[in-house]
Structure formats: C-alpha cells, structure tokens
Amino acid sequence: SSTGDSAYRNDPPEDLGPDKDRVRVVVRVRPMNNRELERNERSILHGEGENSVTVQGAQHNRRFTFDTIFAIESTQEEVFHYSGIKRLVDMSIDGYIATCFAYGQTGSGKTHTMIGPGGANIFRMDENVRIKCFGLVPRAINYLFQRLREKSQETTTPYYIRVSYCEIYNEQIHDLINPAHSQSLQIRGSVEDGFYVENLFQTYIETMDELLTILEEGELNRAMASHNLNDTSSRSHAMLSIQIEQDISGEGTTSTEQMTRQGKLIFVDLAGSEKVKVSLSKGKQLTETNNINKSLLTLGTCISALSDPVKRAGHIPYRDSKLTRLLAESLGGHGITLMIACVSPASSCENESLSTLRYANRAKNIENAPIVKTDSKENVINRLKREVRKLKDENYEL
Ligand code: ADP
Ligand code: MG
User: Fold this and answer.
1) For 245-273, how does the pLDDT look when each residue is reduced to its tens digit (9 = 90+)?
2) pLDDT tens across 80-114, in order?
3) pLDDT at 147 exceeding the cut of 90
4) Which residues form the Kinesin motor domain (predicted)?
C-alpha cells in the first residue's frame, strides 16, 4: 500500500508534540532558461545533499535548510514522490484541510511545477508526453482517485467529491469554472469557523477525467492581462479546491445522528512574488499592482508573525487580504500545509531568489494544529438547500 511509502521522506515531523504539524517547505530550482544561458549567467544556487541549498551570489553567501531540495535535474515524477504531496492527499481523504501552494517570482517554475510546462497547454500534448510532463496537481488527482478506489474496497460508505476553482486578481475573486457568473465574489465566515467564497460554483465530479477537464478549463480562464513581465497569469492567485466528503455515521459514536467528514485538498498557484517596478505601472495598472501586493504582502506579514514564537500568540492579520482569509486554516490553523518555493539559479535573479528563500525559511517555522472537523448530515443538507434556494432566487439555470 502506498500509505506507508518510504517516499514520505520528510516525515515524521520533529519534536513538536503529537497534535502539531509544521508547515513543510520544499524548494525547486529550475534549470537556466535560454536567455540566462545566452548571457552566460553564473549559477549561484547549489544544492548540498537533500536538504540544504547555498546561495553564492555577488552580494550574499548563505545556506538554507529545507525539507527537500529539488535540483535542476529533478523530474516532475520525483517532485511528486518526494515533496510530501501524497501525505496531503491521504490526510485530505481522512478529513483534514490540506494545502499546497507554490511561491516564487514570475518565471521561476510555479505553474510548471503545479500543472506542467505551459500550464493549460499540457492538456493538448500527446498522451505519452503529457503523462511525463504532468505537474503536481494532475499527479495528486490521479493519486487521489487511486487511493479512493483502494479505500472503497475497505468501506461501503461512498465518498463525494466537490470541486471549485477561483482566482484572486486585483483583490477580486473570480470563478474559473463558471466565469460568466462571476462578478467579484465575496468571502464570508470567520477565522474561527473558516472562510469560504460565497456563490462560488461547486460541482460534484465522479471521475479523474472530469476533474482534469475542470483543471484545464480553469487554467484557460485565468486572467489575461497585458504586462511587462512575460507571463499573463503572473499577477493572479489561482486556487483549486477539492472537497472530499464522507458519511461517517456510526463510526465510533453511539449517536443516531448522521455525520459527515469533509476533507479538503487545496492547490494555490500564487502570483509572482517579484517587486513590480512602479515606473511600469500607470493608472489602472497601478491599482492592480498595489492590490496584488496587498494579498502577497499580507501573506508575508502573516507568515512572519506566525513564524515568530512571540508574535504568533498575538493578532494575525488574516482579514487584511482575500488570499490570507482563504488560507487562514492552512497557516497556523487546523490544516496541514506544504509550500513549494520556486527559484531560478541565475545570477541575475540573486535578489529575488534570496527573497524567496528567506520567505520560505520563515514559513517552515509555522505550526499548525491539524484536526478533523465533522458536521452533522442535517447541517450539510440544510446548507445545500440554502444554496440551491439562493441560486434559484438569482435565476441561475440548474
Ligand atoms: P511561473 O509560473 O513561476 O511564472 P513557469 O512555470 O511558467 O513560471 O516557468 C517559466 C518557464 O520555465 C516555462 O517555460 C517553464 O516550462 C520553464 N520551466 C520552469 N521550471 C522548469 C523545470 N523544472 N524544468 C524545465 N523547465 C522549466
Ligand atoms: Mg505561472
């Protein structure tokens, strides 16, 4: 069985106590691109063993330790096997909120690592090539269905899978599955009960192919904004949420109430972390830049506070941005979290790479206290009924 897989290389967690779980942080260094090679740039990042990386730049000389370092020659398959993502999938099936997010400057390999080379283009590749190129998300989806098939032989209670996909762009939330219906959506909820995006389209899916189709369409729908940096999606945060629901009535309880357990697997491809030069941005462009910075800056503030043993007990400003509200459970909350920090090895990226590694270095000190939340079936049904009524009121086609 794959649960006891030795591929959980960064398990078990250090001496945090049984009910704590540190945010896991892995680093992926992409190969030099053509431009960097043509300019004969020096590689300033060097892996040392599985866990450390040194920066030997013009201005800095530093060594960092992370859970795993993926050097330039690492394959998509290796990243899948050794990143710890399987543990996230397994725990999401067991009812935890499991989050994987990719952080790094534009062009550092976030989308390549999460989806595959060229993002949505991957789905148009020849089947054999595609399987090889698939990034973490399609591989995790494949693994999820494989595990659910295995589980369905042990238990008779079915799993239900619900998917939503949205992006935060300019501090506005847009639906990536159903873009026509999306004005900017609102976030509801609280730090205590969790936040959610109101009226975000959610669809039940039954097969892996259905889920991959949603991923493909969502990628195609990601905002296209002209921008001085190469990547059109470099300024939006994309969030795919896969909810795994199981009826657990009778499991260790004497209550006759029907209970469900809802795990969640969340993937976030963050906007580029680079500082946008103000001279490039005018008028509308300027507000976009500021707002993107607002979500990323707040994420940075929250990570800093949470990684500091003293500040962590105080106020964490989750509410200050859309992104941090939606990631509140994942950072310092009740979920489990994996961060993938993507960096270029080229000397021209020294400052951005160093900034990414420092950021990642703080994130690894964040402690979560994972718990499984259950809900009575009645609550779930009532909530769904409310949602249906609301959709009818708003004349959505059902
Ligand atoms: P980001 O999403 O961070 O802006 P991308 O994932 O789009 O960056 O990567 C930029 C370019 O570099 C793409 O052409 C991508 O295919 C390529 N690339 C990124 N990481 C790797 C890698 N590990 N191996 C080969 N090519 C990569
Ligand atoms: Mg990208």
Assistant:
1) 988 776 655 556 677 888 999 999 999 99
2) 999 999 999 999 999 999 999 999 999 999 999 99
3) yes
4) 22-366
- The neighbour count for residue 240, using CB atoms within 10 Å, is 26
Pairing of strands 203-205, 159-169: antiparallel
Would you state the structure tokens that stand for residue 337, as one six-digit string? 């979290």
Could you tell me which residue, 155 or 109, shows the higher pLDDT? 109
To the question of whether residue 279 is assigned a binding role by annotation, the answer is no
Beta-strand relationship, 24-29 and 336-343: parallel
Nearest to 343, CA basis, from 42, 34, 10, 45: 45
Contact at 8 Å (CB) between 171 and 295? yes
> Hey, which bits of the chain come out as E strands?
21-22, 24-29, 45-48, 52-56, 61-65, 68-70, 97-103, 159-169, 172-175, 187-190, 194-197, 203-205, 237-247, 259-269, 336-343, 367-368, 374-376
Helices (H) and strands (E) in the chain, counts: 11, 17
Task: Give the range with max mean pLDDT: 48-57, 174-183, 224-233, 271-280.
Answer: 48-57
- Tell me, using a 6 A CB cutoff, whether residue 273 lines ligand 1: no
Helices (H), 13-161: 34-38, 76-82, 85-93, 110-114, 127-133, 136-151
Between the CA of 198 and the centroid of ligand 1 the distance, in Å, is 33
Confirm if 363 and 339 have CB atoms less than 8 A apart: yes
Question: What pairs with residue 264 in β-bridges?
Answer: 97, 243
Residue 88 CA to residue 77 CA, distance in Å, equals 16
The tokens describing 122, both together, are 């991957």
Neighbours of ion ligand 2 (CB under 5 A): 110-111
> Which of ligand 1's atoms lies nearest the C-alpha of 342?
3
The structure's pTM equals: 0.88
